[in-house]
Amino acid sequence: MKKTILLLSVIILIIFCSNTKKEEFSKEALSNKLVTANGSETNLKKILKKHKGKTVVIEIWASWCSDCVKNMSNVKELQTAYPNTDFVFLSCDKTTEAWAKGIEKHELVGEHYLIPEGMKGAFAKSINLDWIPRYIIIDKTGKIALYKAIETDHEKVNTLLKSLN
């Protein structure tokens, strides 16, 4: 009986901690290397600084991801509905060629960056990336308004963007 109660306590604690609202990125997430479309290095801190004062939707995706591809129409719908929101795409593609082809094929409008080590690298670990597509929404003050949303959370994302714009 004691083991059961202990196990239930641990499970509740894990659930509680995983649902805690995250308002800022870790130092690691802000400083890990990302690659620009022209091949130079940058990081999330520089990207967010570029969009200071704006609502930002960060989509983490890959051209090989069927859920990402299926959800592209939802992303385009959001871009049309919220033209004053900036969209930043972080790709987990394995090569720059696949990444560039994916951007072109799906006609993705926004800023594009490559996560050089994909879903298993330092950047992915620093943001607890366990599924793509993944959305992170930053409000105009630079705080994280939504830390983790996936393609099935479209209405949640839409409602939040409506309130932020």
UniProtKB/TrEMBL annotation:
Residues 23-165 form the Thioredoxin domain. PROSITE patterns: THIOREDOXIN_2. InterPro entries: Redoxin (IPR013740), Thioredoxin-like_sf (IPR036249), Thioredoxin_domain (IPR013766), Thioredoxin_ResA/DsbE_sf (IPR050553). GO terms for molecular function: isomerase activity; oxidoreductase activity. CDD domains: TlpA_like_family. The keyword Nucleotidyltransferase does not apply. Keywords: Isomerase. This is Thiol-disulfide isomerase or thioredoxin. It comes from Flavobacterium swingsii.
